[in-house]
Fold this protein.
Amino acid sequence: MKELFSDWRHVFKLDPDRTLPQRELEAVLGSGTDAIMVGGSSGLTYDNTAALLERLTGSDIPIVLEVTHPELALPGFDAYLIPMVLNTGQGDWITGRQALALEEMAGLIPWEKTWAEGYLILNEDCEAARVSGADASLTEFQAAAYARLADRLMRLPLLYVEYSGRFGDMGLLRRVKRVLSGTRLIYGGGIDGPQRASQAARIASTVVVGNVLYHDLDGALSTVQAVRETEQEI
Ligand code: 1GP
């Protein structure tokens, strides 16, 4: 089935807790990227998420929110992605927090634009690993088992291999990709320019670029074309 994200190759991730001046934000929106993801692992509030949404409203590319806390789930986004951290021993981050949110909000959720997003967090030093207690030390073999679980058992639409802040192991990513049959593979972490963007885009269906936006805008913008020009391995 074709979903909103089915053709996304390149995505910029913006963190409401960090500042991007207006001119830079406009450059991001006009960069040719396929979508903007709004998300972060800490420091997100209703107010800073609403403020960023307001600045993004009116753009002609999809603006999607990764909902890490129910209070952030403002109306007005084009889609909502609900992270489920697969490689944590803390059930709260797999289904606990999500179920708690549903106790209160089930009737308010726009299900037609809401999807689960399985996360494999593989950089032990990143904030997401710290807050969710993820076991980031998985071998390729273990990561592939989680990928099968996401794809075959849970039939998740999306699997996000997250190395936030560090460029990941492309061998592991390839191994994960090879076991997926229906789940779309997203990669994010440490992409700082065209070369890494292209390396990741050869394997992952969607490549997410975040941090570099805040210290090297030109480097960040150059990843869009690099991803466009890269064909995904079969
Ligand atoms: C973070 O995967 C994204 O959630 C992007 O990672 O910030 O390292 O680019 P970087």
